[in-house]
């Protein structure tokens, strides 16, 4: 895994580890100031999303560190591309239509997918 891939994967891993942990550990009232969409989604779905984000963050970093199944980096990054595509759709259908962060994360995930395919 090259340096650029480590940087993009590391950034995504830190972001999703933080965001996923918040979604898993905080209640709806604590999440609402940061995530206006939580009122439109059942809490078990928010918890599941947080769990998937934490697992994806681990999938970006652990396989190359352990030297096993490096293709999991690509799989995790593709998962984050799909996640952000859905997040953009959720934001555009709600009252809070700010998607700049989502677009930035989507681009970073796409770049990570691309970099993880490089030899």
Mean pLDDT score: 92
Largest sheet: none
**Beta-strand percentage?**
under 5%
Structural class by secondary-structure content: mainly alpha
- Binned, the helix content reads over 70%
Tell me the span between the first and last alpha carbons.
8 Å
Give the strand tally. 0
The 3D shape can be described as globular
Radius of gyration computed on alpha carbons: 15 Å
Order of helices and strands: HHHHH
Tally of structural domains: 1
Number of helices: 5
Poorly predicted tracts of residues: none
| Oligomerization state | single chain
What does this protein structure show overall?
- The protein is an all-alpha fold and 119 residues long.
- The protein has one domain.
- 77% of the residues lie in helices and 0% in strands.
- It is built from 5 helices and no strands.
- The chain has helices at residues 3-25, 28-31, 43-66, 71-93, 100-117.
- Helix 1 (3-25) runs antiparallel to helix 3.
- The protein is globular and about 45 Å long.
- The mean pLDDT is 92.
